Amino acid sequence: MSETFRKFLRTLPDFPADLPRFDPATAARNPVELFKQWLDEALDAGEQQPHAFSLATVSAGQQPSSRMLILKNIDGDGWHFATSRTSRKGQELDIVPQAAMNFYWASLGRQVRVAGPVVQLSAEASARDWAERPRADGSTNPNWQLYAVQPTEFEFWQGSNDGGHVRHRLGPDGAPEG
Ligand SMILES: Cc1cc2nc3c(=O)[nH]c(=O)nc-3n(C[C@H](O)[C@H](O)[C@H](O)COP(=O)(O)O)c2cc1C
Question: Where is this region: Disordered (predicted)?
Answer without folding.
Answer: 158-178
